[in-house]
Amino acid sequence: MTITEPGPAETTEVVAPVRVEAMPPQPPKPPKPRRRPRLPEPRRPRAPRDGRWWTGAAILTASVLLLAFVVHAAAFSAFQHYRAQTIAYGDLRTSLAKAETPVGQLVDETTMVPLGTPVALIEAPSIGLSEVVLEGSTGDVLRSGVGHERDSVMPGQSGLSVLLGRQTTYGGPFAQLYRLAPGDEITIVTGQGTNTYRVFGLRRAGDPQPPALAANAGRLELQTADGLALFPSGVLHVDAELVSKVQQTPSKAMSYAALPPAERPMGQDPGAWFAAFFAFVFFAAAGIGMWWLWTRWGRWHAWLVGVPVLVALGVATADIAMNALPNLL
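^ that's the sequence the OP posted. Answer follows.
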């Protein structure tokens, strides 16, 4: 029997178990955002084309024109009148200093005094009136100040001198004429000197006429529209007698029968309506253009661009139309 001795002790390597800790769960990665497809830009809403929209557009355009007319009559025309009076006053002072102010209907034997020439300065302290008087009484002349009716004598001379002025528009120089009372004095400076008149009556249509003018006497008649502003009911007349020395009176070259209708009280220029019509056509075209912009650009863009243009054209149209209206408004 064979006995085997044990050999060196065999070493057994014991490996400690490795503790594997559990990893915390990772949050899921967010999905990549999908690229949205590029949508076409939304079209601007177009204006409706039914009858109500067009009716509203027409009413709004007419309202802008009416507003422009009121603004012109109340404000812009007054600035035009002020500027014209400033220029006319300077011209009158110069002509008086040079002794060149017209004192009759003619500049020479064959030439009438040009319309719009400054010929006098009228003052009525009781109503705060101080205005340069221009030759002629057309609507265009009366935009710049008081007008002298060309068939009448110059103020201060023997006979009847007639002055016309507007009631409301273009400064309304004769707006307070109705406040004149018998006894009030009116002073008029002409190329012949200073002349004084004394009011003795106011009259309207249907009132008795003043007595006939005595020989070698002078009289002044002031005329303007009567009634509500821009809605005249007739003509207001103010009569005044000359109380200062009668000036030398040149012979007359024009009578009332030869006076053009546009230069008579409440006269109108028929040709002015032609120009006013074309001005209105341009205004209407601008209104149509504004509504077209509304459909293309949008509401606010059309308003910002169109309204100032419409107002400017409306004021210009009103200015042209004023020449076609009665000259005393």
